Write a sequence for this structure.
């Protein structure tokens, strides 16, 4: 399971937001002895690009080992938020005794596979309308934002933030919208652990559907964690990759680039 955050702007430190963690906190797992070599390699990569800020967090699910590089460097969520939004839709469906409708599945597919922003916006706004969240009766289609008049939705943000809390995410929070909030690599690891290990507040079949969408097949998803598909790690083949990438430019021309993934090596060894 891999939580990776890349930022092309200056680093920033924010206060940690305490939250109970039903998913064990990756930051509390012991560091591996090989971390010095990884740090040296990342230092070398960072040195190639003047002004770039790199942060990386990883957690080996099978071994219970974690690694963090510049954990206080933040990036904007951009499109990686589409996974917790999808998890929020799935959570609402289970809580209200419903299942995903065909329209919701179409929106989720467009949002996750092709990183479609209009589809994501409809899913997000649907979180603030519980009837629409269950029935999938959202305005417009994945390519149409007609009927959506307000990008800000405090109620939807509250639902999303509850999902973050359930995942054990400590610092990342929606301030009323999606995509333009800060995130940290260790928070992304917590989200990916939910994808890898499962959560009891989402139906197993629905979570499997979300995993099936997180493929590195589309060109928007075959970089970052997506490059691990088909590779070998210490002589063992990578058998599966679930990934979500995101990117967001600033007015200055700087880019925030983020990639989060679950990488399965061999039969069942997963790293986040």
């Amino acid at each position: 399971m891999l939580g990776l955050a890349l930022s092309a702007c200056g680093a920033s430190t924010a206060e940690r937001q305490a939250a109970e963690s039903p998913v064990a906190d990756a930051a509390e797992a012991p560091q591996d002895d090989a971390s010095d070599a990884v740090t040296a390699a990342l230092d070398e990569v960072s040195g190639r690009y003047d002004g770039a800020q790199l942060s990386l967090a990883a957690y080996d699910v099978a071994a219970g080992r974690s690694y963090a590089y510049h954990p206080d460097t933040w990036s904007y969520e951009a499109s990686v938020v589409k996974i917790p939004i999808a998890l929020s839709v799935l959570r609402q469906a289970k809580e209200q005794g419903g299942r995903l409708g065909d329209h919701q599945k179409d929106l989720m597919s467009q949002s996750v596979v092709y990183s479609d922003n209009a589809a994501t916006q409809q899913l997000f706004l649907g979180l603030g309308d519980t009837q629409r969240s269950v029935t999938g009766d959202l305005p417009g289609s994945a390519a149409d934002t007609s009927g959506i008049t307000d990008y800000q939705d405090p109620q939807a943000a509250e639902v999303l933030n509850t999902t973050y809390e359930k995942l054990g995410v400590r610092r990342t929070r929606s301030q009323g919208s999606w995509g333009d909030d800060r995130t940290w690599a260790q928070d992304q690891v917590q989200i990916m652990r939910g994808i890898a290990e499962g959560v009891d507040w989402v139906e197993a079949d629905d979570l499997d559907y979300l995993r099936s969408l997180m493929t590195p097949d589309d060109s928007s998803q075959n970089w970052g964690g997506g490059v691990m598909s088909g590779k070998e790690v210490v002589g063992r083949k990578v058998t599966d990759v679930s990934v979500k990438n995101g990117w967001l430019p600033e007015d200055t021309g700087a880019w925030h680039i983020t990639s989060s993934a679950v990488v399965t090596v061999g039969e069942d060894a997963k790293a986040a």
